[in-house]
Write a structure and sequence with these properties.
Blueprint: E1 3-6, E2 8-9, E3 23-26, E4 31-35, E5 48-53, E6 58-64, E7 67-69, E8 83-87, E9 96-100, E10 103-104, E11 109-110, E12 114-118, E13 123-126, E14 128-129, E15 157-161, E16 165-169, E17 172-173, E18 176-177, E19 181-186, E20 192-193, E21 196-203, E22 217-218, E23 221-224, E24 229-237, E25 242-250, E26 255-261, E27 270-273, H1 275-282, E28 322-328, E29 333-348, E30 351-360, E31 376-381, E32 388-396, E33 401-409
């Protein structure tokens, strides 16, 4: 049955301090890893917390103390607005978490480091970046070389790219908000040397003119809608104004394939796509109560986010599976749950366009989280495996720094 509930923590479990700007990612099973953030002092955190959800409906927090094998640092520096992305291991075994960027709010320091946390050994290492081959020297001055890594940033959007790497968009750097898209891919052999896992960055938006991309922004919400399709909503622009557009970037084509205003300005909110978990639930036998919540699961989607041929009016990937929560709407802290849906509109003879809409989700007030922004969210399979759950952690509002956990079951 769909709806909200507040997670109860079992006896003996520690609880993280209240914070905003933390990052979280879903691991294998029903586990979520959270990192960093800051309170309103502001005091930044460098802690890692593992939340395990039990079959009894309760949760257990464990503080993770990684084995540090950092070549240039003696410790993991505290930060807020970083991203952490889980890459599953071979055969679904324990994978690796990539930590990128962030800011130390008191000093204003912005990070550009990429770290790797192995979830089998809990070792944290630097990632060794492979250098791109430079052209041979000639009599003519060599052309300017493109950057080989993204500039430091915080409050960006990140996701799992092509099932084995990391994609990032936007955020705020030393010179303000950004609008670039980068992908990191580990070495093909998964080599690990003395300084950490190796791989390389590639700028996916490097071939686009400035007018072919969206407005620069930070604190947008985003999620993957396919292996190479990144969806972004809102954020705060370079002029400080709130944005309300929906964007889709096709990583394989290296271009933005959708840009449309929704009329819903928002920043510091979250977006989660439950389609993957619902698709997996569809493969399971129906429960005794009928087809279950996954009966309305997603249609197959291509990298641009459009569904393949067939199926009525052509809803976009897993219509009804992308959920947005909370944030700041320009007037106050929001506490609403929004559902992203797509429809095809007739534009002329034989021409139809894709249109995105955000609609409020009606849910009982009992168990619902209070309004907040700068919270973290991830998607897990439900306890019975027939649906998906959106798990919210922390955030801040006008009164307090939060550390509670709320779960919305689809």
């Amino acid at each position: 049955m769909s709806g909200w509930r507040q997670l109860q923590v079992d006896d003996g479990s520690e609880v993280p301090a209240g914070r905003g700007g933390a990052a979280c990612t879903a691991l294998d099973g029903r586990r979520i890893l959270c990192f960093g953030g800051a309170d309103r002092e502001p005091r930044a955190f460098d802690d890692l917390w593992l939340l395990e959800l039990g079959a009894d409906g309760q949760g257990h927090w464990t503080r993770v103390s990684p084995v540090l094998k950092l070549s240039r640092k003696r410790k993991l520096l505290p930060r807020s607005g970083a991203s952490i992305t889980y890459v599953p291991g071979p055969g679904g075994g324990p994978g690796k978490v990539y930590v990128f960027g962030g800011q130390e709010p008191a000093s204003g320091a912005i990070f550009d480091d990429l770290l790797c946390l192995d979830t089998s050994s809990w070792e944290l290492t630097d990632v060794t970046l492979e250098q791109q081959v430079q052209p041979q020297q000639t009599a003519q001055p060599p052309p300017p070389q493109p950057p080989q890594r993204p500039p430091g940033r915080h409050s960006h959007v990140a996701g799992l790219y092509e099932g084995r790497g990391l994609i990032i968009f936007g955020g705020a750097g030393l010179r303000g908000p950004l609008a670039d898209v980068w992908a990191f891919q580990p070495s093909s052999d998964g080599a690990v040397d003395g300084s950490g896992t190796s791989g390389s960055w590639r700028c996916l938006s490097g071939g686009l003119a400035e007018d072919q991309g969206p407005e620069r922004r930070e604190m947008a919400a985003g999620c993957m809608i396919s292996e190479a399709g990144l969806l972004v909503h809102g954020g705060r622009g370079a002029d400080g104004g709130l944005l309300s557009d929906i964007l889709i970037f096709d990583g394989r084509a290296g271009r933005w394939v959708l840009s449309q205003d929704t009329g819903v300005p928002r920043c510091a909110h979250t977006a989660c796509n439950a389609a993957v978990q619902q698709h997996a639930a569809q493969q399971q036998p129906a429960t005794s109560g009928g087809q279950g919540a996954a009966a309305a699961g997603p249609q197959p989607a291509d990298s641009s986010g459009s569904t393949k041929a067939g199926g009525g009016g052509g809803a976009a990937p897993g219509a009804g599976n992308v959920l947005l929560f909370g944030g700041f709407d320009g007037e106050g802290v929001a506490g609403d749950l929004l559902q992203l849906t797509f429809r095809r509109e007739q534009r002329g003879a034989g021409s139809r366009s894709l249109r995105a809409e955000l609609r409020p989700v009606k849910a009982a007030a009992e168990g619902a989280p209070q309004p907040r922004f700068a919270h973290a969210a991830a998607v897990l399979p439900s306890t019975d495996g027939t649906s998906a759950e959106v798990v919210l952690f922390g955030g801040v509002n006008a009164e307090e720094d939060l550390s509670d956990v709320h779960i919305y079951t689809l």
